[in-house]
Amino acid sequence: MNVAFDSNLKFPEKWLKGGLIDPMTGIISGVWEQPRFAGYADLFQFAAMTCDTGAFGGPDNFRHVGGASLDRRSAWIKAVGEGVERYCSAIYDPKDFVLASSNSVPFETVDPALFAMYPTQAFEDSHFPFDAFDENSLVRWCEAQTFEGKRLHVPAAAVFVPWYYDMACGEAPIFQPISTGLACHSSQARSWLGGLMEVVERDAFTILWQTQSALQEINLVGLPEDSTEIIRRIEATGARVRLGMVQTDHGIPVCIATQQIESGDMPALSLAASASPDPAEAVRKALEELVHTFRWMARLMQANPEFDPGDDNKNVIDQESHLLYWCGKDRRHQADFLWQGHQITFDDIPKPEPATSEETLANAVKRVEETGYQPLFVDLTTPDVAEFGFHVSRTLVPGYNPLFMGHDFRTRTNPRLLERQHFLGQTDGASNMLPHPFP
Fold it and tell me: What is the dihedral of CA 231, 49, 303, 404, to 10 degrees?
């Protein structure tokens, strides 16, 4: 394995010489700049690989991560930060967490009803991998806290990634563990805010997609300079970029970006999203993530040129197959419903007043609380990661949709989803039968 960083990039000396990145002993085994190929937008992209946490005797981790940006340094930091958060989320011993039902523990827990996602008949299917979650379900509990510092417990499966249910000990498999809400940043406030914005983003997209709602399409004229430049570079490949804002009850800007391309053997439709109190940041990050997603989809498409989603999309079972579904040009039109709404300009979107990270976080928490749900935070920073100045956390908002991979596991009875369906006059539990394109 080759050296993992470019010495010309300016970072704290401890990052480069203190063991953060080392092929033998580093938290990050390597970071590599991705080559730029014809047909790919001309942005900086880095890939990184974390160390194997399974070597410590615990669970293995998701090792392959990456990042894209107009700025080379930012792309590098994105890749490293994602690697650090995936490392911290896998450093745990499941036996450290009490295995019990919520009605038998001496501490306060979240209400299991907030995790309702599937109708009763789903659990009657012997092939469905999850159990109904109620006050009698045996789960392992992890302590979390509110923004104000109140302590209560949440399922550990909602905190750590990966999480393997110990069904031999009676642990109930209550939902699909996923990374929604993981964040790494230079301060606790920024880490909490980053995680909360990812929860908001995934919830907004899930409701949008499951109800087949339209976006408020953003006119590409008048965008901030950095976003305009990213779009220029994407469109130089022959692709078409569209941007839209999701209409939400909390008012936090959630931007969806899509890319469509006609020519060559390239993915037909790519999609990415980002949420931020600052709409300029939401738009830019969605576009950067779009470039990152397109590259991944192109590689998947090359490796799986004959992908068949199967009858009733039974072959759409994981993250990769969700993306492969949308590589096919014959399916691209199925997402046209996203663009049936009215158009707005970037200036139409409310902008935040200047604020500190702590003030921005407090305001975002307040907005989510006003929708009737409570943000919760878990510190996952390991001692070795803390030495490098990182803060890693997991944010949860029980009741918000975390997004799942595998078409059969899509949310169907989440209260927020049902509320939106009622507003639109849709049938309870009805859902978009198309696999989502979220990466």
Answer: -70
Going by their DSSP bridges, the two strands 240-245 and 254-260 should be labelled as antiparallel
Query: What is the spatial distance between Cα 20 and Cα 187, in angstroms, rounded to a whole number?
Result: 18
The whole-number mean pLDDT for each consecutive block of 10 residues of the chain, a chain of 439 residues, reads 41 65 92 92 97 88 94 94 97 97 98 94 94 98 99 98 97 97 97 99 97 98 98 97 98 99 89 99 98 97 95 95 96 96 98 97 99 98 93 98 92 92 80 90
Task: Name the residue type at position 22.
Answer: D
Helix, strand, coil distribution of the chain in percent, nearest 5? 35, 15, 50
CA dihedral sign, ordered 345, 347, 348, 350: positive
Provide the residue type at 408 as one letter: D
Q: 337: buried, middle or exposed (CB in 10 Å: 19+, 13-18, 0-12)?
A: middle
In the chain, the largest separation of any two C-alpha atoms, in whole Å, equals: 61
155, 141 Cβ separation under 8 angstroms: yes
Residues ≥6 apart with Cβ < 8 Å to 400: 199, 200, 202, 203, 368, 373, 416
Name, in order, each residue with C-beta under 8 angstroms of 327's C-beta and a sequence gap of 6 or more.
267, 268, 269, 297, 300, 301, 307
d(CA 316, CA 331) in angstroms, rounded, equals: 14
Torsion over CA: 309, 311, 315, 319 (sign): positive
What does residue 220 show for φ and ψ, rounded to 5 degrees? -75, -10
